[in-house]
From TrEMBL:
Protein name per Swiss-Prot or TrEMBL: GNAT family N-acetyltransferase
Organism (species): Streptomyces klenkii
Keyword Transferase: yes
Stretches assigned to the N-acetyltransferase domain: 8-180
Highest taxon of the lineage: Bacteria
Keywords of this entry: Transferase
């Protein structure tokens, strides 16, 4: 199998397509997080709950990369709605002007993952950029485990900047919050 990022076929999905792609997203998540699935926060059941919540938001979209019919990775996102709790978990609150949302300002990138054989091939960046292309929002935000320094550095190379730490749920780890203009 050729592991060049050029062989990856990218497919976009909208919320209406979730039933047809759900199993691909869940199976990829379970493979990527296999060593953490015993932690309730990272369990497949909790992932499926988060996925359902995220996909129920207006503007949800996903991009899956495929090679020879098999998913190599995916990303999905949706705009932050007015009154979102996204910024409420910040350990150092942001100024109101930076955290006020109208449903069109900020895209939240909830998941970006690539199966191990495809890491380091450029597939993640292609999936990421395809997901962001054509989006109407002004900026995109994501959370990254600060212990994954290489991943955080990768996002910085892609134009993200660190804006603080947050704990999005009481049982979640503390994540570095990053932001990039679109």
């Amino acid at each position: 199998m050729n592991k060049s990022h050029d062989t990856v076929r990218l497919t976009r999905y909208a919320a209406d397509d979730l039933p047809s792609v759900r199993q691909t997203l869940v199976a990829t998540y379970a493979e990527v997080y296999a060593d953490q699935l015993s932690n309730p926060f990272f369990s497949v059941e909790r992932f499926e709950e988060r996925l359902a919540g995220h996909a129920s938001r207006p503007g949800w979209g996903a991009v899956v990369g495929y090679v020879e019919g098999r998913a190599v990775g995916y990303a999905y996102a949706s705009p932050l709605p007015p009154g979102t709790r996204w910024w409420a978990g910040m350990l150092q609150p942001l100024p109101e002007a930076d955290s006020e949302e109208d449903g069109k300002r900020t895209l939240a990138l909830f998941e970006l993952m690539v199966r191990r054989p495809w890491r380091g091939t450029g597939a993640a960046q292609r999936i990421h950029e395809e997901l962001l292309s054509g989006r109407p929002e002004q900026r995109v935000t994501l959370l990254v485990d600060p212990a994954h320094a290489k991943v955080k550095a990768l996002y910085e190379r892609w134009g993200y900047r660190y804006i603080g730490d947050q704990r999005p749920f009481p049982d979640a780890p503390v994540y570095a919050t990053m932001l990039r203009a679109l």
